[in-house]
Amino acid sequence: METFLSTVHYWLVDHPTINQYEWKEGQTFGSSPLFVAVTVVSYLSVTLFLHRFAVLPDLSSSALRHASAAHSMVLCLLSLAMAVGCSLATLHQMPPSHGGWRWVVCFPAAATVPRGPVFFWAYVFYLSKILEFIDTLLILLSGSRSRRLSFLHVFHHAAVLVASYNMLATAQSLLPLGVVTNAAVHVLMYAYYFLSALGHRPRWKKLVTDCQIIQFVFGLMMSGLMLYYHFTTGSGCSGIWAWFFNIVFVALLLTMFLDFHSTNYSSKKRKDHDN
User: Fold this and answer.
1) Rounded to 5 degrees, what are φ and ψ at 15?
2) pLDDT of 160-208, one tens digit each?
3) What ranges in 54-144 are assigned the alpha helix state H?
């Protein structure tokens, strides 16, 4: 067991590629504002065009299910690796000199650069948000595009890429918590999509939405703690300006998910009660 844990720790934390990783603005792939802008605009433009003109070929239901299952399995396993990897990396990189666990919430502004295993997993997290664009393509390839392709879906996919870039570019405080909680929720979400694509739709769809809402509420609570550290410590917390963008994004998502939850599950509950 100890050998297994040591092997996992090596491949998720101690491997030189991970342990010595450093985000370099303009040098690391995808590390420029232009890259983010072009990617988001391209995603929105292509999505709007394909949704409006429906030029994609029709796939058989079997081919679509297999494509969806493969995509969901890849993202489920990748999310699991990010959740475990970033958790272990945080324990490894957390400096005792900065209050131990306080570092998880508040990177010291004067001494933090995006370097080390925590930021490697944040970089994988950032790139995974581009891979998640395939979610939209699969919806557009299905026959239910008008029902499933919502503003919430498109807004979430576009804005989360910007938020992920901001976290890395500014070495934003709360980054470890953001990566671990979001990746953990995505393990559950893509496991649901994978099983659904195989024809075994689980009965815990509502649980996925509940966990997403809990994630946003938890992020808001931890933001309050981060602000406390920011104003009560000498150096303040790193990435505070990027945090302003991300906290507005999280608040908007929480509002939209609460509305989605109310519309889809409360009405269903009333219908079941009436029947």
Assistant:
1) -60, 135
2) 999 999 999 999 999 999 999 999 999 999 999 999 999 888 888 889 9
3) 61-93, 102-105, 117-131, 134-141
